[in-house]
Design brief:
Number of helices: 8
Low-confidence stretches: 1-7
Strand content: under 5%
Distance between the termini: 74 Å
Shape: globular
Number of strands: 4
Oligomer: single chain
Strand order of the largest sheet: 1-2
Length: about 270
């Protein structure tokens, strides 16, 4: 019998009697833990930063830029943004930061995203921590019970993410103004917003649900040439879903941080023209 393959007691989970009798925790010799550790650090950093910015409720608007964390601003006490996304759907009774009202939708979209599920399942829950590495849990019910059954809401969060991306596109258009709201100007912040919205759209459209909506239910592509081309385009984006997920996560945080620097007076937005 090969080393590390001696029979082990039936302890449940991946150690059940129906699994291969491998006594060793795993047979990998590489640094398999680096990927989940880096994922945990990256996601944790974003969670801490976004929580700080969301609950701060300050320095989120510096004409003509509005932080993507606060757009659209749905509370009555939002800062006045000329021609901006001020929609006072919630009155003065809302006591918390208005960012919390809108962040639930893009965060819900990312939390239920197929790639992010893999990322934080491995990074935070070790379920499993890596390929060919046994998870420490004795029981596994998949996504059939609360709260993981809520992952099935991904398609509906996708619809909401489309609306949010549309609003952020509008904010990017407004970024072609100066601090006095005059059109035909462009600052460094405009470039930051342009990069961010391109990555946001690329990540949103690379979603598996988007690919299924575009062409997943078609039986004959030859009868739907337009949808077939759209399906192929989304498929190419989908192949880079992980890269786009991380790039857009970083870009939206950088866009918010840039607005924070300008709004707090720590940095002056350079004008390109």
């Amino acid at each position: 019998m090969a080393t590390g393959t001696e029979p082990h007691p039936n302890s449940g989970g991946v150690r059940s009697g129906t699994r291969a009798a491998i006594a060793a925790p795993h047979l990998r010799t590489d640094r398999w833990w680096l990927a989940p550790a880096a994922t945990t650090a990256g996601l944790l950093a974003f969670v801490v930063y976004s929580a700080w910015r969301a609950f701060t409720n300050a320095d989120y608007y510096a004409a003509p830029y509005v932080s993507p964390f606060y757009s659209p601003c749905l509370a009555e006490k939002c800062e006045t943004m000329r021609a901006g996304p001020n929609w006072e759907i919630f009155g003065g009774w809302w006591p918390l930061s208005p960012a919390i009202l809108i962040l639930i939708f893009p965060l819900g979209f990312r939390l239920t995203c197929y790639y992010y599920r893999k990322a934080y399942y491995r990074g935070f829950w070790a379920s499993p921590p890596a390929c060919a590495v046994a998870e420490p849990h004795k029981k596994y019910s998949g996504e059939t019970r609360f709260p993981l059954i809520l992952q099935n809401l991904h398609r509906y969060f996708f619809y909401a993410a489309i609306l949010v991306a549309g609003i952020l596109t509008y904010d990017t258009v407004l970024a072609f103004r100066d601090e006095h709201y005059a059109w035909g100007h462009m600052g460094l912040g405009t470039l930051v917003f342009l990069v961010n919205i391109v990555l946001i759209w690329a990540y949103t459209l690379s979603c598996h649900s988007c690919r299924h909506i575009v062409g997943g239910q078609l039986k004959h592509f030859s009868k739907h040439p337009v949808r077939y081309r759209a399906w192929r385009l989304v498929g190419k984006l989908n192949a880079r879903h992980m890269l786009l997920a991380w790039a857009s996560l970083v870009s939206v945080a950088l866009a918010d941080f840039y607005v924070y620097l300008v709004a707090s007076g720590a940095f002056d937005d350079p004008r390109l023209f």
